[in-house]
Amino acid sequence: MIEVVATSLVTGFVKTDCILADHGIRPLKHETVAIGASKQHGPSSDSLKDEKFNRGRSPMTTIPTRDGKHIFLNDWGAGRPVVFCPGWPLTADMWESQMLFLAQNGFRAIGYDRRGFGRSSQPWSGYDYDTFADDISDIISNLALSDVTLVGFSMGGGDVVRYLGRHGSQAVSKLALVSSVTPFLMRTKDNLDGVDGSVFEGIKAGLTADRAQFLADFNTYYFGTNRDGSSISEGVLSQTLQMAYTGSLKATLDCVTAFSETDFRADIAAIDVPTLIIHGDDDQTAPKGATGDRTASMIKNSIYRVYEGAPHALYVTHKQRLSEDLLAFARG
Questions:
Q1: What is the chain's percent helix, strand, coil content, to nearest 5?
Q2: CB–CB of 87/179 below 8 Å?
């Protein structure tokens, strides 16, 4: 059984034993893409270098989904594609450091806002992992991508694993899971190492009562600012909240249900591409014993890297190390 840190996060009445979340950073100036229009100027020298990996570009910002919604994209650089899936309740901009680094080193870095968050459509329903996987499929097919490295952070680890389980690996060559919530968070009779369901009900109650304050308080555990030596800036904390607040409340709540109750064990069993798993050993929101350790044990020949002292949001606290590890993996 895992040990879960108890904390009181919402004024007066909501107490949770464990908190799970994800985060992001301010966007850079970027190139964005959509389907349905062509560029009105000639290709850059970068795009000419490797044309087969850089189809589907246009000056717009979204791609259509099979159910009539739209998904916002950032599309930087040229080369073999690396698709970045964000964590909850964030957007593509959480990946800005890693995307910039890979784009500067010969890759096409594509990040997107999950439906319900940021600049993507915010429908009333559809916040389940089958739909999220279908959105990834629509991105890959609309942009005519192949030889893709999929990268998923926290909740996004579920998106990319379910994509492989649902759509297969024909377009995907590699998988990276960073601080992932896989394989199954909820405690059940056949998943005794999971987290009690009352924890997630407490999270949803806190969000409903005062989402703004709940997420502000959550930053403590997400970044590990309650640990000695933490050096997270006020700017980063503010950016995190700015990103989180762009999501709809309905999506934010429904995604808690999705990432807590979805069992990815069958999807993981079907993974047939090289896989890199990265987790911090001081993750207070998705403790590695219940997530990274178990996922690594289930994926044959996976590479498992544990970052000593790293919190959940290691893409900020260990951003250069993570960027270099992802680059080496994508190149390998």
A1: 40, 15, 45
A2: yes
* β-pairing verdict for 80-85 and 148-153: parallel
Residues 50/79, Cβ–Cβ less than 8 Å: yes
E strands, the chain, are 7-10, 14-16, 62-64, 70-76, 80-85, 107-112, 148-153, 172-178, 275-280, 303-307
Residue 229, Cβ density class (10 Å: 0-12 exposed, 13-18 middle, ≥19 buried): exposed
Phi, psi of 64 (to 5 degrees): -80, 150
Hey, what amino acid is at 201?
A: E
Rg of the Cα trace of the chain? 19
Output the pTM of the full model.
Answer: 0.84
pLDDT in tens, 143-189: 999 999 999 999 999 999 999 999 999 999 999 999 999 999 999 99
7-331 is classed CATH 3.40.50.720: no
> Beta strand 172-178 with 70-76: parallel, antiparallel or unpaired?
unpaired
pLDDT of residue 200: 97
Dihedral angle over CA of 303, 306, 310, 312, nearest 10: 50
Q: Are strands 80-85 and 107-112 parallel, antiparallel or unpaired?
A: parallel
What is the rounded distance in angstroms from the CA atom of residue 211 to the CA atom of residue 197? 20
Domain extents in the chain: 7-331
What backbone torsions phi and psi does residue 95 show, to the nearest 5 degrees? -95, 10
Q: Say what the pLDDT of residue 52 is.
A: 57
CA count, 13 A, side-chain hemisphere, 20: 37
Q: What is the pLDDT of residues 204-252, one digit of tens each?
A: 999 999 999 999 999 999 999 999 999 999 999 999 999 999 999 999 9
Look up residue 73 and give its two tokens. Answer: 């994209």
All residue ranges of the chain with pLDDT < 50 are 1-49, 58-60
Q: What angle do CA 36, 38, 43 make, to 5 degrees?
A: 150
Neighbours of 124 (CB within 10 A): 10
The residues that are catalytic are 154, 283, 312
